[in-house]
C-alpha cells in the first residue's frame, strides 16, 4: 500500500527530464544556465563525488527538469564523470530518472569529434536534439555547416546556438518540444555484418540482459568500466572472437567504424576554409605555453591569485571578525546575569557562526579566479605547464592551484580540487592540501620564533626559520602523495589526456554565478558541521566548571598577596587591574579543570617524548578544532587572559620564564621547534575536516585527521630528540 | 597494423613541429581506446605543436582540436614521420 502511494506521488511530481550531454568545454554549463536561469541547485550523485547540477525550465508552457551531466568524450567511461553520464543515461543512477530527451551539446568548430559521443548515445534510443554551440567561433573560422542537411541526415533537430550570448535558446526550446512530440531519434551506425553477428550472439548468450548501448560497451571496451557478471564473461569472449575471426580488432573497431560512419554523414554538410589560417587561440598559445614566457606569465598569474587570497581577503576577514565580535559583546551584555548561557551564546553560537563566515572571503576570491581561469581556457594550459612537476608523485598539473591556495587556507584549496577530473589525483590532492602551511599557522611561528629564536640568534636567522617552516608541510606532502598512490589508493590511474580548449572571454554572469554558488554551498553544507564542532569544543572547554574553583583561586590569590579574602574582594571592586589579574587566574583554573584541560594533563605523557609540558599539551589539544586558538589558549593557561596575540610581549615573557618543577626552562630550542613542527603537520582544523567530509566522505576525513596527527607527533618527537642530541 | 619494415617510431618520440601519420597502436588498451575515441586513428595526421617547459607533456594538433598528453601515453601510438 505504502509503496503504491509513494509511486503515485512520484508520478505526480514526475516532470519531463531533459539531460544535457557533451564533450567538456563545449559550453554545456553556459547553456544550462541560459535554460534554467536561477532555478537550479547543485548536489552530488550518491556515492560518488561528481557534482549533480539540476534545474528547471519552461518549454511549450510546461515546466521541465533539466540536468547538466558532466563532460564526457566517450561512453567508454574512462573517468568517474563519464561513468556518471553512462549510468544516468541508461537509467542506472539511483535517485536520478532516466532522461526523456537528450540535448547533445556539440562544438560546431569541432563537429566530427563531438558527434562521436552523440553517435554512441544514439544507441540508447532516446529522443535527441543537437545544439551546435560555439556557432560564432565556427563562423569566425569560416567553417560553414548546412544545419538542415545535417538534421536530415541524422534524423534529429539541429539548432545553432551561441550559449555565451544567449543566441538560439528559444529555437532550442522549440526543438526540444518537437523532439519530445515526434520522438526524433538519431541514426545509429550501420555496423558491418560481423559486428551485427557478434552483438546478436552476445545478446542471445546473455538472455537479452542488456540494452543495445550497454552491449556496445561490453563488446568493444576492453577495459570496460561496467562490471560484467562472471557468467557473462564467456559470451563476451565468444562475441569478440567473431570480430577477430573477421579481421576486426576489437580495440579499434568501434572508433574506426564509428568515425567512418560519421564521415559519411557529414560529407557535404560541412565546408572548411581551403586555407587553414592560424586561429587566435593558436597565436595566443605561442606565448602562454612558451617554455620561458609561458612560465613567467604563469608565475605572475599565480602570484596575483595567491596575493588576493592571502592579502586582499584580510580586510574582509577583519571586518567579519569585528562584526561578530561586536554582536558577541552586545549579546554578552544582554545575558550578563546568566554566565553559562552568556558563554554558550557568545563563545559557542556567535563564535561558531563567525568561525564559519570568516572563511567566506577566501572561498569567494579563489572561486572567482578559478571560474575565470577555467572559463577562459587557461586552466588547461596551467595544467599543461605544471604537469611534469607533479606527475611523478601521482598528482597532475591541475593540483597546482589547490595546493597554492592551501598556503592561504586549506578550505578553498580542498574545494578547488574539484577542477581535477582524475579522481585519484583529486583525492590525493585533497589529502595533502591541509599540509600546506596555511595562514593560521603563521601566528604560531611568529610567537615561538619571536620569543625564542629572534632574541638569541637575531632577525636574519629568525626570518630564515619562518621561511623554512613554510616548506616543512610541502616537503612531507609530496612523498606522502607517492605513498598514497602506490600503497593506499589502489584504483587504476586515469590517462592525462587534456583537450586544449579555445580561449574565451569569460562571461561575468557565469563567473559570478559560480562564485556565489560555491559560497552558498560552503555555508550550507560545511558550515553546519563546523558550527556543530564549535559547540562541542565550547562545551569541552566550559564544563564541568566545579563551583569551588572561584573561591579556591580567590583564597590562593589573597594568601599570595598577604591579605584576607574580604580585603581582596574590596580591592577588586575598586582596582580594575587587580580585578583583571584575579579574573585571568580564575579563567586559567577553569581551563585546567575543564574536560579539555583534564584531557591535556592526561595526554601529557604522550607528548613527553616531544618535550611538551602540560600547558603546551592543553594548548595543542584545545587547538584541534582550530589551530589559531593556541595563542588565546596559551594566554589563558599563563593567566594573561585570552586576548593576548602572537606579538604580545607579556605572553612571550611568561613563556620564556616558565620552568619545569626542577627549575629548568620549559621552552628550550628543541621544544620550540618540536612545537612548530607539530603545528606545521597536524590536522588542527575542524573546518577543513568538515569540508573533506563534504567533498569526499567522513572516512577520508578521519583518515586525514589520523595520518596528519600521527605524522605531526612523529615529526615533533624526531625534532625534539634530534634537537636535544645536537644541543647536548 | 604495424609499420612495414621500418623501426617503430612512437608519437612520444616526435620533436616539436614534427608531423607524422598514425600507423598503429600497441600497449595500454584503455589509453589507446581513449585516444582513438578522440580521433587519433590510424591514417590520421598529427603534429606535435608544443612541448611543456619541463619536457612533458606534449600538445598534439589533430584535424581540428589540440590535445595534450603525457609522453608515456603518447607512446601507445605508432607513427610514420612525414
Ligand atoms: N564564443 C563562444 N563561447 C562560448 C559559447 N558557449 C560557451 N562559451 C564559453 O566557453 C567556455 C566554456 O563554457 P562552459 O559552459 O564552462 O563549458 P562546459 O565545460 O561544456 O560546461 C566559457 O568561457 C563560456 O563563456 C559560445 O556559444 N560561443
CATH superfamily (homologous) name of the domain at 17-182 in chain A: P-loop containing nucleotide triphosphate hydrolases
Q: Which term fits the overall shape of chain B?
A: globular
Overall geometry of chain A comes to elongated
Helix content estimate of chain B:
10-25%
- Determine the structural class of chain A based on helices, strands and strand pairing: alpha/beta
Beta-strand content estimate of chain B:
35-45%
Note the run of SSEs of chain B as H and E.
Answer: EEHEEEHE
Instruction: Give the end-to-end Cα distance of chain B, rounded to a whole number of Å.
Output: 18 Å
Poorly predicted tracts of residues of chain A: 1-12
**Distance between the ends of chain A:** 80 Å
Instruction: Kindly estimate the percentage of residues of chain A that lie in beta strands according to DSSP.
Output: 5-15%
Largest sheet of chain B: 6 strands, antiparallel
- CATH topology-level name of chain B: SH3 type barrels
Bound molecules: guanosine-5'-diphosphate
Largest interface: A-B, 42 and 35 residues
Low-confidence stretches of chain B: none
State the secondary-structure class of chain B: alpha+beta
- Spatial order of strands in the largest sheet of chain B: 1-6-2-3-4-5
